[in-house]
């Protein structure tokens, strides 16, 4: 009888450990996907004139910023709009006359603490100059924090060192940092 209790509690204990570990892996995978989709959308610019097109028209501008809402907490989205994070890649493409695309993202560290996930990442941007057709690559490094909101992982903060390519086009100093 004692052996049955021991086996039963061992099975329950091991099940709890396995479920806890798999939930953590799932959370991290979901968080990675959220960040990948967000950065992919932010840096997928196929019309270098898009900045000029949306800035003068409130409906288009509001719609463009709202397209990022699914990836962010309510406060994160407010800061994203207020700090004009959305505008930086659009302005660089407009000024430099190039198309932009994120080609890769690597997550260097992922830490899960309480109800948040902290990730350090490096992503690669590929720019194609409209006039010359030449390609340029540049990388961005940063830290992004996701928290659970309405039972989904959402971006609450992002702090990143601006890619050299964008710094050059916008006349920013080397090592410029943007955050929301």
Structural overview:
The chain has 180 residues and is an alpha+beta fold. It has a single domain, classed as Roll (Nuclear Transport Factor 2, Chain: A), CATH 3.10.450. It contains 6 helices and 5 strands, in the order αααααββββαβ. Strand 2 (116-129) and strand 3 form a beta hairpin. Helix 5 crosses helix 6 (164-170). The longest helix has 41 residues, at 2-42. The radius of gyration is 21 Å and the shape is globular. The N and C termini lie far apart (59 Å).
Features:
single chain; 180 residues; alpha+beta; Nuclear Transport Factor 2, Chain: A; five-stranded antiparallel beta sheet; 6 helices; 5 strands; 46% helix
Helical fraction equals: 40-55%
The span between the termini is 59 Å
Structural class: alpha+beta
What is the strand content?
25-35%
Gyration radius over CA: 21 Å
DSSP summary: helix tally: 6
- Stretches with pLDDT under 50, minimum 5 residues: 4-23
What general outline do the C-alpha atoms trace?
A: globular
Which architecture name does CATH use?
Roll
Query: What is the tally of beta strands?
Result: 5
| CATH fold group | Nuclear Transport Factor 2, Chain: A
Which helices and strands, and how do they pair?
Blueprint: H1 2-42, H2 50-55, H3 58-66, H4 74-82, H5 87-96, E1 98-113, E2 116-129, E3 135-149, E4 152-161, H6 164-170, E5 177-179
Antiparallel strand pairs: 1-2, 2-3, 3-4, 4-5
Helix pairs in contact: 5-6
């Amino acid at each position: 009888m004692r052996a049955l209790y021991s086996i039963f509690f061992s099975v329950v204990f091991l099940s709890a450990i396995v479920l806890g570990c798999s939930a953590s892996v799932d959370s991290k995978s979901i968080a990675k996907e959220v960040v990948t989709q967000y950065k992919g959308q932010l840096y997928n610019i196929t019309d270098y004139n898009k900045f000029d097109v949306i800035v003068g028209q409130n409906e288009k501008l509001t719609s463009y910023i709202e397209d990022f809402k699914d990836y962010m907490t309510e406060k994160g989205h407010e800061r994203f709009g207020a700090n004009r994070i959305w505008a930086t890649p659009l302005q660089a493409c407009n000024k430099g006359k190039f198309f932009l695309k994120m080609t890769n993202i690597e997550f260097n560290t992922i830490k899960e603490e309480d109800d948040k996930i902290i990730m350090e990442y490096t992503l690669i941007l590929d720019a194609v100059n409209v006039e010359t057709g030449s390609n340029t690559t540049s990388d961005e490094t940063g830290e992004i924090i996701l928290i659970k909101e309405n039972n989904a992982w959402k971006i609450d903060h992002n702090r990143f060192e601006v890619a050299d390519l964008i710094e050059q086009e916008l006349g920013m100093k080397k090592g410029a940092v943007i955050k929301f």
